[in-house]
Amino acid sequence: MMELDELRIFQAVLQEDGITRAAQRLHRVQSNVTTRLRQLEDKLGVALFLREGKRLVPTAAAWRLNDYAQRLLDLAEEARLAMADAAPSGRLRLGAMESTAAARLAPVLADYHARYPAVQLELQTGESRTLTAAVLDGRLDAALASGPLDDDRLEQTVVAVEDIVLVAAAARGAPSLEELADSTLLTFGSGCSYRQRLEAWLRRQGVQPRRIVELGSYHAMLSCVACGMGLALLPQALLDSMPQMAAQVSTHALPDDLSRAPTLLIRRRQTCLPALQALETMLIKRAWAGSGLGDSTND
């Protein structure tokens, strides 16, 4: 019978890409990690990793097991918290889009930290696609990502509805389709949901932008827009949170199917951590208090 400790070791080896870093993460000697991993493989009757010298290559069986392992470990942690104390505590690994972290999260997290000091909150920012994958893989407990998302493995709660605008240099008027085709678009990576929205809309119009430049932060993006380097698609709430930079650019309305985007709190189905439930409640209450967040619904 599989043991939870074996599953934790297996996941560490998978996530750390090898025995050495897994042992360091788990504070174990390498020989113990190797032995327990082989014991798990013997119990399952399959090879989880192919040994290529000192390198371990995950097999298809390893990726299948990872999904079950995460669910079992999550359920065990949920049971432990339910038996120990219903009050929020322990570690909560939260992901958020860069724009949400900058424009929305600071007051919520400050309030959350004051109310629940026993929770060790970890925040990771990234693109919606990356955050969603991290939730599904068990590397994050939950994330704030742009929707809609079509995945039955996820529970989704709308905690904001963002007004999306096209941002250009301050002296520039609303660009035409022809001007868009001749413009440089300033974006995050291909996993950015706002970028995907804009590119899909341009394709429908038969427009191919002359150039796309990927940047790593909204501060850099707004600075480049203000200097006339190109155009960007940003949430209005982000501009509202940065009034000095917003004064250096102009904003332009988008078509209805681009102009509003729900921000979702996503987690794997049947994940019920008290720390996460408390955060969701605070996000929803802030929405209802009229902070600019949208109505809350469950999917």
UniProtKB/TrEMBL annotation:
Q: Which UniProt keywords apply?
A: DNA-binding, Transcription, Transcription regulation
Please state every residue range assigned to the domain named HTH lysR-type: 2-59
Q: Tell me which InterPro entries the record gives.
A: LysR_HTH_N, LysR_subst-bd, WH-like_DNA-bd_sf, WH_DNA-bd_sf
Q: Which family does it belong to?
A: Belongs to the LysR transcriptional regulatory family.
Q: What is this protein called?
A: LysR family transcriptional regulator
Entry-linked Pfam families: HTH_1 (PF00126), LysR_substrate (PF03466)
Read off the PANTHER family from this record: HTH-TYPE TRANSCRIPTIONAL REGULATOR, HTH-TYPE TRANSCRIPTIONAL REGULATOR GLTR
What range does the record give for the signal peptide? Answer: none
